[in-house]
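note to self: dont lose this again. the chain is below, predicted strucutre after it. 35 aa total, dont forget to put it in the shared folder this time
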Amino acid sequence: MYIVCLDLEGVLVPEIWITFAEKTGIKELRLTTRD
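---
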């Protein structure tokens, strides 16, 4: 049996928090662990 795990956020789809921050106007939500 093989199991494949992917981190969907930021790999296959854009970071959801960046879009959420733009919609709500909360700029702090744009920060990621890379920042």
